[in-house]
Design brief:
With about 400 residues, the chain is of the alpha+beta class. It has helices at about 15-25, 50-55, 60-65, 105-120, 165-170, 225-235, 235-245, 295-315, 320-350, 355-370, 370-380, 395-400, and strands spanning about 5-10, 30-35, 45-50, 70, 75-80, 90, 100-105, 125, 130-135, 140-145, 150-160, 175-190, 195-205, 205-215, 215-225, 255-270, 275, 280, 285-290.
Length: about 400
């Protein structure tokens, strides 16, 4: 059986998979990206801290240009209406020496920028096909394509989503769970400027989060009871706009909804391990949870950064067992802590149990009242592990500088 040989095979053409392939090619690895054309995506992504630094290193932030809107302030407002209500907490990037925590960008714009950057790399080949099989030996992995072709590689990176066929073929088990919530995702215009401020209202059904886009536009992630979500998405655009303005307490004046809108049930997933023989999982192939706290793609991009770094340290054989053990060790703590944090935050909003409400309220009150805790939380959010030691200078330069 004949096969083409590459150093790296990346499976999956979503944002994380394409960024991983670009990063490997930019680092000098002969790389092939196996992916079908991505479906249109009207969502946006808040790129935070190290994600921005990583994308900047591989040439993406320049490609994005003015399509990326800075996130200078993140505001949390308790809108639960409960007896125990937390104070409003504002996280201002200037408090930790940054112009912005990161940038919000439409996924369609990010995808287009990734495609432009990929087209400029000589070491990156893109194959529009599906990977349907994976076999391994001690010295290489073999990926089988739907058209009958094969690629042999030192390392296979699976970025093929929540239902990852590569993960399943490798026998890596996954634990899945669901939440009694749905997410409504939409973009909207508004009369008043957002001033690069993102506002997250904590409601009894979940977060209601506005994130700024360039101009007088914002994206919205609205977590709601499934029954109500079904009703809202069937409303006329003008009536839905009135409800959104009301839930935003008119802080942006009148709003205009951009149709269509998206809705999907909330769920999560956690894998037993992030690696197999000559295989590494990145993005939602390795972890998945609700769109809360801007964690999803940011966590995936930290996976990308880590596996590329490990491969560079093991350039003679980036898929060897010791290299993959190193990747597992680097990512496991971050993945577990973020998954747990998002889960606890979401469940705390749903809980009517008074001690849970008290703990959440006390925690947010402490962040508001004690600058050290607030600064620690901001640094940790921008770059995990930097809460006590401070942000690395290189990251401050890449994330904090002004952009067009």
């Amino acid at each position: 059986m004949s096969s083409k040989r590459r150093e790296i095979v990346v499976v999956g053409g979503g944002l994380a998979g394409t960024a991983t392939a670009i990063g490997f090619a930019a680092a000098g690895f002969d790389t092939v990206l196996i992916a079908m054309e991505a479906a249109p995506d009207r969502r946006s992504t808040a790129l935070i801290g190290r994600s921005v630094a990583f994308l900047d290193e591989i040439g993406l932030m320049e490609e994005l240009g003015s399509a990326a809107e800075p996130l200078a302030v993140m505001r949390l407002i308790d809108d639960t209406g409960r007896l125990l209500r937390a104070p409003t907490v504002e996280f201002d990037a200037a408090e930790i020496g940054l112009d912005a925590f990161g940038y919000n960008v439409l996924n369609a714009d990010l995808h287009a920028a990734l495609q432009r950057r990929a087209a400029k790399l000589d070491r990156l080949e893109i194959v529009e096909d599906r990977a349907v099989g994976l076999s391994t030996t001690t010295d290489h992995a073999l990926v089988e394509l739907a058209d009958g072709g094969h690629y042999a590689a030192d390392l296979v990176v699976a970025a093929d989503g929540r239902g990852s066929p590569m993960r399943e073929t490798a026998g890596i088990t996954v634990r899945k769970w669901t939440y009694p919530q749905s997410a409504i995702v939409l973009n909207f215009d508004h009369a008043l400027p957002h001033r690069s401020v993102s506002t997250e209202f904590h409601t009894r059904s979940g977060p209601f989060t506005q994130v700024p886009l360039p101009g007088r536009r914002s994206s919205l992630v609205w977590v709601e009871e499934p029954r109500l979500a079904d009703l809202y998405v069937d409303l006329r655009a003008d009536r839905l706009a009135e409800i959104v303005e009301e839930k935003l307490h008119s802080i942006f004046g009148a709003v205009t909804i951009e149709m269509p809108i998206q809705r999907f049930p909330l769920s999560g997933a956690s894998v037993a391990r992030l690696t197999g023989e000559r295989l590494a999982l990145v993005g939602e192939a390795g972890h998945a949870f609700p769109p809360i706290g801007a964690q999803g793609l940011n966590l995936g991009l930290r996976d990308c950064e880590a596996i590329i770094s490990v491969a560079q340290d093991n350039r003679d054989d980036p898929g060897r067992a010791s290299a993959l053990r190193r990747y597992e060790a680097m990512r496991r703590g971050d993945v577990r802590s973020r998954t747990l944090g998002v889960d606890l935050l979401n469940r705390s909003l749903l809980a009517d149990f008074l001690p849970v409400q008290f703990a959440r309220t006390a925690g947010l009150a402490a962040l508001e009242a004690i600058p050290f805790l607030r600064h620690f939380a901001m640094r940790e959010g921008v770059a995990p592990g930097s809460g006590f030691v401070g942000l690395p200078r290189a990251l401050r330069e890449r994330v904090g500088r002004d952009r067009p």
